[in-house]
Amino acid sequence: MTLEDEQRQDQRITDGPEPKHIQLSAAVARLATESLTPGEMIPSERTLMTEYGVSRATVRKAVDSLIVDGLLRRVPGKGTFVVQPRLESRLHLASFTQDMRRRGLHPTTRLISCEAVEPPPEAAASLGMGTPGSRGRAWALTRVRCADGQPIAVETGWYPASLFPDLDRRDLTGSLYDIFSADYGVLIDAAEQTLWGEAADAPTARMLEAEPATPLLVFRRVSHAAGRPAEHVVSRYRGDRYQVHMSLSRDDMSSS
């Protein structure tokens, strides 16, 4: 028996206190975190069956559990791959650029479009821009936000042109909040933010280099500067690359 045969026999899974699929799930998780890097493909079902001495059903159950846990992702027709770890954010008032720099990542931005338009009703209401035909103009700005070269979010925002004249002449590939403060004397100091989930449509998926229907975390933020509305932005984050952490506490409530 060769050394390779002995090593293969050593990792074969046998009946024990834990079901075989749980043992295999732990073994594949170790492989994914210790020997493979994000984006690498794990061994095929047939290889896992041979190396661990288990059935196809056991392999599928083990791999499916790791997909549910977010460690792996299956790409139809290609294989199963190690997932890029999610970036975690605590909810706070900061720009994407500031947020990424705080966690030691290199933020970059791809500018998709910037034009002065009459904002849609929801954005106009948030920005206090009046009724149709008398709203004035707002900058409609769409950007793809990246961390260490990986697309993380697509942002579509509206900003009053009267508050930020000639915004389209600025370098919009960095922090807007820094531009607002340095060039316009506008400091974003408060915001209301709403979060929901949705599936990526085809255009959004292309910008995020993701599959259509990839789960998204969507944030709508309405920001103010000294009480004046300055921003209405909707940010769509890849749910497989981003997560949110919140610290919760029980409010003091008097019994009725």
From TrEMBL:
InterPro entries named in the record: Bact_HTH_transcr_reg, Chorismate_lyase_/UTRA_dom_sf, Tscrpt_reg_HTH_GntR, UTRA, WH-like_DNA-bd_sf, WH_DNA-bd_sf
The keyword Transcription regulation is assigned to this record: yes
Domain HTH gntR-type positions: 18-85
Keywords assigned by UniProt, alphabetized: DNA-binding, Transcription, Transcription regulation
Pfam families reported in the protein's UniProt record: GntR, UTRA
Organism superkingdom: Bacteria
Annotated signal peptide: none
Record carries keyword Cell wall biogenesis/degradation: no
PANTHER family per record: MANNOSYL-D-GLYCERATE TRANSPORT/METABOLISM SYSTEM REPRESSOR MNGR-RELATED, MANNOSYL-D-GLYCERATE TRANSPORT_METABOLISM SYSTEM REPRESSOR MNGR-RELATED
Protein name listed in UniProt: GntR family transcriptional regulator
Species assigned in the record: Nesterenkonia aethiopica
